[in-house]
Amino acid sequence: MEKVVVGAAIVDGAGRLLAAQRADPPELAGGWELPGGKVDPGESEHAALVRECQEELGVLIEVGEQVGGDWALAGGYVLRVWLAVIAEGRPEAREHLDLRWLGADELDDVAWLPADLPIVRAVQGR
Ligand code: 9L3
Ligand code: MG
């Protein structure tokens, strides 16, 4: 079975990107990521992305274009990422340690997870 993790590159009207600081597991805690998570069996990737953002951030997102293709993750997982905007709600850290909206010149202000860094670069380029 394909092991897919979906992630959201959530941008606001000012062109800022939402970064989320992981709370767990210990080896990833403190690192910053694009919010998201594992696709459940039988669930579409789109549905998983909307669900994860609801659960983790308490927002309803509108999903846009995909950023790149498959990004490699540990453990045989692949990460697929889409641009998104917030249709409803204001993000709160329900499962993360912290959230930050980063402007284009602030993207290096947080310690991105190694897996997420090239994706942030790709988002930055568009
Ligand atoms: N992961 C890495 N970067 C991301 C996301 C959303 C997830 N942007 C990795 C961390 C975990 C695994 O994927 O090892 C599953 O993510 P989650 O379901 O614990 O959020
Ligand atoms: Mg998650």
Summarize the structure.
The protein is of the alpha+beta class and about 130 residues long.
Describe the structure.
A hairpin with a 5-residue loop joins strand 5 and strand 6. The chain has 126 residues and is of the alpha+beta class. The model has no long low-confidence stretch (mean pLDDT 97). The longest helix is centred in the middle third of the chain and has 13 residues, at 45-57. It has a 4-stranded mixed beta sheet. The chain has 2 helices and 7 strands. The termini are far apart. It has helices spanning 45-57, 117-124, and strands at residues 4-10, 17-21, 32-33, 36-38, 60-72, 78-88, 98-102. It binds ligand 9L3 and magnesium ion. Ligand 9L3 is lined by residues 5, 7, 28, 33-34, 36-38, 73, 77, 79, 113, 115-116.
Give the N-to-C terminal Cα separation.
32 Å
State the secondary-structure class.
alpha+beta
Radius of gyration over C-alpha positions, nearest whole angstrom: 13 Å
Q: Which spans of ≥5 residues are poorly predicted at pLDDT below 50?
A: none
Strand order in the sheet with the most strands: 4-1-6-5
From the spread of the alpha carbons, the general shape counts as globular
The proportion of residues forming helix, as a percent range, comes to: 10-25%
Protein traits:
126 residues, alpha+beta, four-stranded mixed sheet, three-stranded antiparallel sheet, 2 helices, 17% helix, binds ligand 9L3, binds magnesium ion
